[in-house]
Specification:
Elements (H helix, E strand, L loop, with lengths): L1 E2 L23 H8 L9 H14 L8 H7 L5 H9 L5 H16 L5 E10 L9 E5 L4 E15 L2 E10 L10 H6 L11 H15 L6 E4 L1 H4 L2 H9 L4 E5 L4 E3 L5 E2 L14 E2 L7 E2 H7 L6 E8 L2 E16 L2 E2 L3 E8 L6 E6 L7 H8 L3 H13 L10 H31 L18
Parallel strand pairs: 1-12, 2-6, 6-7
Antiparallel strand pairs: 2-4, 3-4, 4-5, 7-16, 8-11, 8-13, 9-10, 12-13, 13-14, 13-15, 15-16
Length: 439
């Protein structure tokens, strides 16, 4: 049975579909956009170079590191722009808070989605902050790179990035890297944080600010395999759909739990435990193999550029394992591609039992906006073209890239509204309709 109700499948958010070459001559619009942030820069020269840097990111250049941007700008200055990005003491946090308020105006909708994902930046040498041999998605292998954790927002109006954190591998906090940390300007109080910890830091801040309407949080198994991250979202009351590894364990029925019992000898036990004889949890891949064919149904995930994207789904209410005990009940969503070589993906969600299956299907297909945002940033805005090596420089560059992306999103929406407003009217309806014939 194929579930393809068009009424329950809203169109995906539109792509940015504007390149820097399309925004030439719109400097006045960029100045007005920059005015939303300029009061947050403490010094006049910082305000000036912020506008210059944004303008540089929007130029039609093959490479957007500081030198080619400065040479292409009428008032460009290589050294001044390098200092502004790499050493300038301006507050990214305040800038990004103002950015979120603008995103709420541009894209905010009640069913908004936060998407969390990582992106890597290949680098040569060992001098750049946080660089190490680690998995690099841009190259599809272990390579020398920097890794960032990002949060995006998507709604039916569009998508854009909200925040970013540089992941610092544990080796960077060893005594052997002390001099390197100092050269890169890593703040003394920074400690090792896992990618899920960085992700939660950003999601928590966005949620606490309460500026953006959020209905879902979604992410891949790199975060979904971390029970602590899922617990944080649950405790915050945030609804998630998390891709998880195949070895994730769940119970189909809640097992009996025994409270700590003390025999009167030795140290009293502190923790509850599963009652003796209770069924063990299943791995989700084993559970998927045991489902009967009748448990699977075909759904349309979304409308793609080449037509509807479909997959087979199964939905099971489960109790995930949390610290060897059953967690709160939730959904196990199984998604299997169609064709001769099907690929199976596994998702956990804390959504209510009454959540329509079609809603879970739709959210399972909402990882692509952040992937497109990375592509937009790297193809059009020089997101990965920076040459700064410092902690401050990496975060400053990513902040301004995020602002430049949102500028394109706002511009696209405005141009779309203008086209609709100036569209020639269709043929006029007749003023007097003929009376219907008598029965």
């Amino acid at each position: 049975m194929l579930h393809t109700s068009r009424r329950t499948l809203p169109a995906p958010p539109p792509a940015v579909n504007l390149a820097p070459r399309d925004v030439e001559g719109l400097l006045d619009e960029l100045r007005a956009y920059h005015a939303s942030f300029s009061p947050l820069f403490a010094r006049a020269e910082q305000r000036h170079w912020a506008l210059q840097y944004l303008q540089g990111l929007l130029l039609d250049l093959p490479r957007k590191s500081v030198e080619p941007m400065a040479l292409a700008l009428p008032d460009g200055n290589i050294r001044a722009m390098q200092q502004f990005i790499g050493e300038g003491a301006w507050d990214d946090g305040a800038i990004l808070a103002a950015h979120q308020r603008l995103v709420a105006q541009t894209l905010g909708e009640p069913d908004g989605v936060l998407i969390v994902d990582g992106s890597e930046f290949p680098k040569k040498g060992e001098a750049s902050v946080g660089v190490a041999r680690q998995y690099c998605g841009a190259l599809g292998k272990i390579a020398n790179c920097q890794a960032g954790v990002f949060v995006a927002y998507a709604s039916q109006k569009g998508y854009t990035l909200l925040d970013r954190r540089l992941y610092m591998p544990a080796v960077w906090f060893s005594p052997a890297y002390r001099a390197r940390r100092k050269r890169c300007g890593v703040p003394p109080g920074i400690q090792f944080r896992t990618a899920p910890a960085l992700a939660w830091e950003m999601v928590q801040a966005i949620h606490t600010a309460g500026v953006l309407p959020i209905r879902w949080v979604t992410f891949d198994e790199a975060l979904g395999k971390d029970p602590g991250f899922l617990t944080h979202l649950e405790q915050a009351g945030l609804r998630y759909l998390a891709e998880v590894p195949c070895k994730t364990r769940v119970w189909r029925q809640r097992p009996p739990v025994q409270p700590p019992q003390w025999s009167g000898r030795g140290r009293p036990p502190k923790y509850a435990h599963i009652a003796a004889g209770a069924l063990r949890p299943h791995r989700v891949d084993v559970l998927a193999r045991r489902l009967p064919p009748s448990a699977w149904r075909a759904y349309t995930i979304k409308d793609g550029a080449k037509g509807p994207i479909r997959a087979d789904f199964a939905f099971v209410r489960v109790f995930p394992v949390r610290d060897r005990l059953p967690g709160a009940p939730g959904w196990l969503v199984l998604r299997r591609t169609r064709g001769p070589h099907p690929v199976l993906k596994y998702y956990l969600s804390n959504a209510a039992a009454t959540t329509p299956h079609q809603t879970l299907v739709r959210v399972s297909g909402l990882r692509w906006p952040i992937e497109r945002a990375f592509q937009d940033g790297k193809d059009e805005l020089g997101m990965d073209h920076y040459e700064t090596r410092t902690w401050r420089g990496w975060h400053h560059h990513q902040t301004l890239t995020i602002l430049a992306h949102h500028f394109l999103v706002r511009l696209r929406l405005r141009l779309k509204k203008n086209r609709v407003a100036h569209r020639p009217p269709g043929p006029a309806a007749p003023q007097h309709r003929p009376a219907p014939p008598h029965p």
